[in-house]
Sequence to fold (154 residues):
Amino acid sequence: MGRRSILIATGWVATAAVATVIGLGAIRLVGESITGTPGGVRSAAEIERALASPEPAPTGATGSASAAPGTTGPAPSANSGARRGFATDGGMAVAECGPGGVRLVSWAPAQGYRVRDVDRGPDDDVEVTFQGAAREYELKVRCIGSEPVAVADD
Fold:
């Protein structure tokens, strides 16, 4: 192999390496802007804390407010008790204690699951059942004091 062939092969390898690095950088830059999660990815504990904290009331708005998917019932009143989020592998739910007992504020199935049954309350206990292809999860909640607590099914 001559000197000229070695230089051509070395130049080709160097050009391919530079093009690969530039391509990977461009894919990373474009990919983050398309699929990036605003504020980063949250842990299950952060999500539970966010769900447990009360939502701010709209100020000065008139007309009807739109509810998020999976939410039901009226907005929490001033005499509502504590609100808490619960998570299972099948989905998550938010419950609160009030004068009429416990009620489910919202619920959402995890990916691959669907809501099979809901008892939203208010009642002594409420429950939501998430059903997947291979497994079913039932979340049952009661008020202990003025705090919603997940309990084992009777």
